[in-house]
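Take a careful look at the protein record below. Let me know whether the structure tokens fit the sequence:
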Amino acid sequence: MNCGTLGAGDDFLTACGVEVTIPAGTAAGTWVVSAITLVNNAGVSKTYGNLNADPIVVTSDAGLSASGFTASPNPVNDWVNNITPVQVTMSVTGAQQGVSAIYVDRASNEDACEQSSTTPTVNPDGTLSVTMNVFQGTPMCQVGGIAIVDGAGNVALYGPEYNAPDPGLTITRVPDTTAPTATSASLTPTSVPSSQTFDTSFTLTLQIIAPVAPVNQISIAVYDSSGNEVGGQFGGVNDTLTGQLQQFFNLFASLPPGTYTVGFTLTDEGGLSTSYGTPGGQPVPGGPLQFTVTP
């Protein structure tokens, strides 16, 4: 069975998609499909008219046009906020009865960004803006198409979605270039009987600074006096930029009497890490984190 660019079903019941190319130089205006001719496997054809098909608007951008496409802010800091608004701005000329709507389409089907309103805002310099909402964690939002409609129904199209000139708009994320740091650290308790090390819950309290991407993971390691790792924990934490980060951990091990040292590693959402009190890591601010296991 051959049924256009899209076929679903069998030879007797199917759904078809047919690709139609609008030739270059086609007159601007509203076009509709006037008739469709179907041919079955036996070569029998039948033509259907009066289809009430959805209209296709062809524009030359000759009267209504736009230029100077920009996005602000760009790059955008979407590491923390659920939604960050970005203004897509352009200069529009040749509009009749004003501009009634501006449609901005993202290039991909991913839910990276979404237009919040098609009604443009007129800026003091005469440019027009609409808002795109960029969602948290979006590395890139590429604009694939822009459609501008004036009050008289004229349309100007831009972008590969319309096989039109590319407006050149790609909204990127502020790069994560600085790893998180700890400015202070404390540990409780600092003394535990040997019989209770298996069940004791320790609390690691940190003051941290994450300049760009929030801390979302912490790794904790416990070392004996010979530098051997005897326990620890790794896991996610609530996104934290700057402030207090408190993490609880258990050893789930019975340790002999002695002095033990705690090290930790902070990792942000961009994958940058800083270690303290671990082999090759930085010194813990304020001195080593230690606890004593008593007989």
